[in-house]
Amino acid sequence: MLSKVNVLDAVNRGALYEYIEIGKMNHQMLNVVQVAQRTLDFHVHEESDELFYVVEGSFCLELKDGCIEMNTGDLLIVPKGIEHRPVCKELVKILLIDLSGALNNDNCGGTYRSHTKPDLTLMP
């Protein structure tokens, strides 16, 4: 049976820096997270691209040659091999799509805790 998830409801139920897995697609995992006042170290995903979708708020995705301002509704795919880091000065709510296993404490500032919340699934 198909089910749906309201992304905004899912991210609002999580605690700050808590990655909530809301789905899987092929070999990808979909996580939502709330972040505030945090700058991660530059890091790179050698094996996969990473998709950022801003559900609410804004942040800067810093690259070695500049910064891309991300605002509510913006979507950006960082190709594998590109060094990057999120700079979050205020509260931002993000949907991330990564290759399963790509997120870890090394590239999430030591705060990575993945939680699957089945109560977020809403039956049609």
- Using the 3D structure, state the CATH architecture: Sandwich
| CATH superfamily (homologous) name | Jelly Rolls
3D shape = globular
- Class by helix and strand content? mainly beta
Mean pLDDT: 85
Number of separate domains? 1
Sheet with most strands: strand arrangement: 8-5-10-3-2-11
CATH fold node name: Jelly Rolls
The level of helicity is under 10%
Gyration radius, to the nearest Å?
14 Å
The largest pleated sheet is described as: 6 strands, mixed
Note the total helix count.
Answer: 1
The percentage of residues in β strands lies in over 45%
Question: How many beta-strand elements?
Answer: 12
Succession of helices and strands: EHEEEEEEEEEEE
Model regions low in confidence, pLDDT < 50 over at least 5 residues:
120-124
What's the end-to-end separation, in Å? Answer: 10 Å
Which CATH class?
Mainly Beta
Structure write-up:
By secondary structure, this protein is mainly beta. It has a single domain, classed as Jelly Rolls (Sandwich). It has one helix at 7-13; strands spanning 4-5, 19-25, 28-35, 38-39, 50-56, 58-63, 66-71, 75-78, 84-88, 92-99, 114-116, 121-122. The chain has a six-stranded mixed β-sheet, covered by helices on one side. The chain has a four-stranded antiparallel β-sheet with strand order 4-9-6-7, with no helix packed on it. This is Cupin domain-containing protein. Residues 37-90 form the Cupin type-2 domain. InterPro entries: Cupin_2, PKS_Associated_Protein, RmlC-like_jellyroll, RmlC_Cupin_sf. Pfam families: Cupin_2.
